[in-house]
Amino acid sequence: MNKYFKKLAIPYFVWLYVLAIIPFVIMAILSFVNNEGLNFSKAIFTLDNFGYLTTSSTVIAFMNSLFYAVIATLTCIVIGYMVAYAIFRSHFKNKFLVMTILILPMWSNMLLRIEALKNIMEPHNIITDILSKLGIHVSLDIAGTPLAVIIGLISTYIPFMILSIYTALEKIDYSLEEAALDLGLTETKKFWKVIFPLSTKGIVSGSIMVFLPCMSGFAIPEILGQGNILLIGNVIDQHFRNMNYNLGSLLAVVILIIILGAIFLVSKFDKEGETLL
Amino acid sequence: MIKQYPGYEQYEVANIEDYGYKEHRLTKKIFKVFRAIVIIFAVFLMYIPIFTIFLQSINSSTITSEFGQITFKWYANIFDKGSLLTAIRNTVFISIWATLISTVLGTLFAIGISTLERKAKRHIMLLNNIPLLNADIVSGIGLMLIFSSLIHIFPYFFGWRTMLLAHIFFTLPYVVLSVLPKLRELDPNLFEASLDLGVKPYPSLYKVIIPAIKAGIFSGMILAFTMSFDDFVISYYTTGNGFDNLSIWIYSSMGRKSLSPSVYAFSTLVTILFFILLIITNLLRGRKQHHENH
Amino acid sequence: MKKVLIDLKDIVKTFDGQTIVNHLNLQIYENEFLTLLGPSGCGKTTTLRMIAGFEKTEAGVIIIDGKIVNDLPPYARPVNTVFQRYALFPHLNVIENIVFGLKNSSYASKLMFYGEDNLIMEAQDKYPNKKITKHLLNKLINEKIYQDAEYAIKLVNLQGLEYRKINQLSGGQMQRVALARAIINRPKILLLDEPLAALDLKLRQNMHYELKEMQRRLGITFIFVTHDQEEAMTMSDRIVVINDGVIQQLGTPKEIYNEPVNRFVADFIGESNIIRGKYIKENEIEVLNKRIPCVGYKFAENEIVDVVIRPEDWDVVSLDKAVFVGKVISSIFKGVHYEIIAKVEDVELIIHTYEEVKVNDQIGLKVDPYKIHLMRVAQDE
Amino acid sequence: MKKVLIDLKDIVKTFDGQTIVNHLNLQIYENEFLTLLGPSGCGKTTTLRMIAGFEKTEAGVIIIDGKIVNDLPPYARPVNTVFQRYALFPHLNVIENIVFGLKNSSYASKLMFYGEDNLIMEAQDKYPNKKITKHLLNKLINEKIYQDAEYAIKLVNLQGLEYRKINQLSGGQMQRVALARAIINRPKILLLDEPLAALDLKLRQNMHYELKEMQRRLGITFIFVTHDQEEAMTMSDRIVVINDGVIQQLGTPKEIYNEPVNRFVADFIGESNIIRGKYIKENEIEVLNKRIPCVGYKFAENEIVDVVIRPEDWDVVSLDKAVFVGKVISSIFKGVHYEIIAKVEDVELIIHTYEEVKVNDQIGLKVDPYKIHLMRVAQDE
Amino acid sequence: RQKEALLILNWGEYINDEVVERFEKEYNINVVISLADSNELFYSKIKSGTTAYDLVIPSEYMVQRMFESGMLQHIQKEKLSNYHEDMFLPGVNGFIESMSAVFPEYADYQIPYFWGTFGLMYNKRKTGLEEIIKEKGWEAFFNEAELPTGTEVGMYNVPRFAYAAAMFYNHLSPNAIPNEENIAIAQRTLSMRKFNEWGTDTLKKNIQKRDLDLAFVYIGDFLDMLYQEINDEVNPKDISDIAYDIYIPDETIAFMDSFVIPKNARHVDLAHAFINFFLDPQNAYENASVVGYCTPLVESYNMILAGKNSDDKYLQNWALAIEKYYPLPDETWEKPYKGTPLTNFDVNSLTKITNMVNNVKTR
Ligand SMILES: Nc1ncnc2c1ncn2[C@@H]1O[C@H](COP(=O)(O)OP(=O)(O)OP(=O)(O)O)[C@@H](O)[C@H]1O
Ligand SMILES: Nc1ncnc2c1ncn2[C@@H]1O[C@H](COP(=O)(O)OP(=O)(O)OP(=O)(O)O)[C@@H](O)[C@H]1O
Ligand SMILES: [Mg+2]
Ligand SMILES: [Mg+2]
After folding, report:
1. For the whole prediction, is pTM greater than 0.90?
2. Residue B256: which of E14, E205, E235 has the nearest Cβ?
3. Is 2.40.50.180 the CATH number for C271-376?
4. Which helix (H) or strand (E) holds D125?
């Protein structure tokens, strides 16, 4: 396969360089200057922007992002794996259909879903209203708490994890499972020693799809955190909205470098070279 | 409970404990219950928002915390609001095309990537992560910058063209990430066998590789569609000349006024539509397979 | 009397309504080397899979060591398998594949496997001043596992490939890994599904020797599937010939070879001349228009019988000493012997001989009465 | 002189710095049946893969039909392969797998394959009133493809399994599908990587016959990898013995068998007694302390040589007629013959005979001077 | 080729589509309305030049900023046949006047569309809350101690507005330069209490559903909720039955959204015609009836108030609401409108404010 399709990757290199790297370079430049919007004619070189990097709110926002993204990703892995595995092991005739139906909700607008979720997390909402009309009085009051944000992140991004893991599980050669059983591994051990390692690629790509947007998103913390929980995505968004492209770019570039750098390092020291990327 | 074998009563039935294994009945049961809870929780998490949206769509009251009566007028209203309808049309147009294009391209790119050496692969996969990691607003402005360099040549360039390009841009990584792991598990002999039988590389790709990785392509497609259907910020920055999609409509309408419940109605309709679509395609496929077997 | 280790009673297995294994009854003794022989698709692999526990039986019971194991999961069965298509773990390298089973068993069963007392003694020897802890024993076990793996690797001639990825091995190398992976566990019963098919003659002969040796030393029961006649003949204590999921004959290699019970077996086990003849009276038959003596069969007088004469049982003699005279139609060098086809009384006979014979020559043939085997003609013919 | 179809010139291939194929030179003639023999991992599959075009050569050229094909992609080479591990398409059923190549080739090459004129004539016959359109021809071609497939299926004995999923086949059935898939294309060159390993003897013999027949009828050149001695001997026009990526000997089966050029070949091709001896003078050697006659070798007088005597070349004779007398150490029934190990002058000899001999008996041996093969002693020993 | 299109950039649901349709018919063109959800987005959209909008509807400080960046063109009043000197409400005129004090060209570069103020929306059912708010205003808003126990308070999640609120509390101008001193003051003020929610459109909903008691919101938000309850089909409420209200302190933010024409507009005449169309009192009235905010036109204002005598319950309530929340000035008023319009801050100041608010949130 190698020699025939290598050229297929070239357009993507070009595409990514044009659409991902050039903006990145522009932003890198923006972070060293002071100008208005994207008007470089009045740009002056400055390192002032870097001062904001260390203000407590920025640092806290970054740590928050990291914290929430890690928690959400880990939870998504656990829950997502269980769900994907349950479908994989189920006796449905068309498992893929079952899974797509399961993740159907993600095809309605994310903002609407988050709003709806926020509503339910508050004491008065349409469901409590209906329930109270039926004489049941229950309510939840977690909107604005970290828990709410995490639940929101999970609810939004877990389908990505389920899909990724399921796809990875789907093609595991059944004879390998038999071989493991044959060698005396119990079902549990078989899972950990054969199925799980063979599905790590799905976990990794699922994690990337969950972790990265969690790191940089702002709508979920803003709505479900009721504005009290500040993630780095919010900060970037604010600065861009205020048209401080310099500071916004700086933050974006710094985050990009930190996270991609971390991924790069992990992949570099990954002995097998197989688990990541 | 040990199973009995009529006719063979004289033989003892083997017990797993005789072979050095323990039957962890209780732990297994506890785990099963735990797993059931987790799964129910996950389903609950995913479905409760759309259930709420559904309730709001049949709620006669516009207030989101009170349920008046059941009504379907919001469904009818969708088609009254010209701007909403246009936004919906635009959204469907963009997301379908973006999904199709990025699924095809993403699959091809992933195939290309899978043949690269480790170093080049790492390189491109890092790049591939950029659109995922960048805050949407950063991607949006970046794309806008690039696109606007063309505006002198094509004054009306901004609009569906730019939005489509942008959507392809941020959905591609999802397709690539979904397809790549499948390519890894591929038996290399399959492709060789096809070449060997005289089929050219690209037909072979289509006839042998694609069927083998179709689960990955499909999940990539689903993800691409989701992302495209939902996007606000990038769409916002990359569109122009009055071409707005549903997310822009929703965001902008939330800013100064309350959302019309028609949006909820539309959302519910979409969910139901997709559900029906899924079932139908599945039935059709089932029938086709049935056909083939006879 | 030998002890019955595996007892298959009235096993039935169907796929899609098609009966693959049909009321199979088979007793396998302890420390026996049993070979399943039969045409492709006859149900050999399916039978092994039922013993290993990968397929449920539709009817009948499988008894191992006196206990019904129908519902015992595969991992608990004292059985290891070498799979026909290897089933190696692609995410592990050669040695990791080999130690996989031992490494991942529980501490208790590891202790059992290596003998707790043994281990403790060894530990005391090796670390005289240390307290014997679980940690220490574990370390020792680990060492032993890798020693065993080294031994297994040597056995299958894979030295130097320990850290290779599975997809970088040749076909024969993969098969050897699969073999090593199974034998390192020293199971009570080892199922081998054409384990040597991809190996060259020399290596195969080596493996024959090693497997036999292992069987003797460790008392393992082997159930073996092969397509290699000679392999089956040399290695097996008993051979089961199966066709369409039904046992045709069960017996020692000599019995199967020399006294096939029906045409299928005679035909399947090596080449044979099966000639229609007539049982004249005790110790005399008529075949190819000649009356010749034969020994040890009892039929009705003048009954029509099938006469089986193996190609190598013909004696090629000078024409004057010959009982039958034929014309050589073809003569092919087969490496060790020549295979000659000769026409005698319009019947084509296959004859093996070490001497070269020219095509179109006349050939004189004779056969030892003891080498003649008679079979009842099957009803449906 | 036969025409050279494939010419491998100085081929080198390494994996991870390890040389797998080492300056290989090999000419393969048109319509020849060539077998590669060699121990597992010696580079047979790799050689086939280079001919088929799946692996690049590091050095050297591959010439097919007078043209250098190093850079010709596999699909354009007139070569088809039966893979060692089958490589069947899992998403297609049996018949779809078989027709895959023909169906997915271009219209032009389909026309070429079936002969355009032929097709048009046939179409006119079949549909006398219709205009000959591309559509019509395509329909006809399709019919022909399925006819061919039916024929191939019959050839490999897979009738009734046409619509089976691949994962529902037994090992032998898969191998047969792989075979049918390759031969339906009627390639000029067919590469077969142990294509019969999973088949039982009867079927294998059948396939031998069919393959030979096909070769004769269609003029296909076969390059064959097998581990089955007899298969190699019976089927091949020439045999290449490879070890560690280096050709050891190239010759007809008889040459390889009777006149191995070195110990490796002698050892590898069937069992052999290789005994150190001395070349006394023309037509006389000393071996096992006896002077015996020999024929047709030329060495220096009194040179130490290796004397090769095949187990079946010993004549077991009564003690009085014997040249050598030994004691029987073991005697095993091998299906067709007995394998006897006897000690003569402290050397263990392997002897094949059709007669049973008892362990510990004395045995008298003799050998035909023409059956004695002498080899120069290798330098490094 | 399609019909010519007039490109407008507007807030969502901020125009009556029927009126637009009428305009399209009358001029035989297409009106294409793009949406955005903040003034800043308006700005960046125009600045980027990716689309040549003909008409935009930003708020006053953004008008100033756009002007200062040279993005706007002069409104040619002579092209507006419906325009005349005293067609606007006195408050509107006053607003323009005071805006012109800092930004003299204001009057020439925009035509008012809707206007209003910010205020403190509160829950009437929380005992003691209404009284204390009306009595103490900002004092109460920021001091937890002043409020009834358990009062849940929300703040508008736009740093500039939060800064303004803090300034009002300290009786400073919301346009005071955010120098170190002012930033410190604002930060201290905003840190005085923990806000239960920093939100925008969510604040009003939460007060309506009693999950919040008090919030600094924009009057449009309040009116929105109000109309929803009044218009409710099953259970329409009277304005007097509404369980929440808004208090407009004297010191608050005043805002005005106006039509402006970007420099690179392609259809300048049509843009003027469009503005003119919406200066027609009947059209403005109809437009307001959908949007719900107060029209700047005197005549249209009167048409709304005339609804008091109508049989239509909704028109009655609407009239009452407008009368109550957009009262005409009387002689007790210092100036003819309430509040202070915001002026433009430069990027650095906004960054400082944003950073300050972030520090408050993460303290
Ligand atoms: N992709 C690869 N990377 C590294 N080494 C390889 C690779 N493929 C094959 N090899 C090594 O090359 C050698 C020759 O392999 P090849 O498959 O040609 O052997 P073979 O002669 O076909 O053996 P067998 O009879 O066992 O199939 C082996 O030692 C094998 O381990
Ligand atoms: N999963 C399945 N579904 C349907 N039929 C099956 C399945 N597995 C095996 N079979 C069929 O059952 C029959 C017996 O298969 P089995 O694998 O036991 O044959 P075998 O004796 O091992 O043959 P071989 O020597 O070719 O490996 C075959 O005809 C095969 O096609
Ligand atoms: Mg089998
Ligand atoms: Mg090989």
Report:
1. no
2. E14
3. no
4. helix D116-126
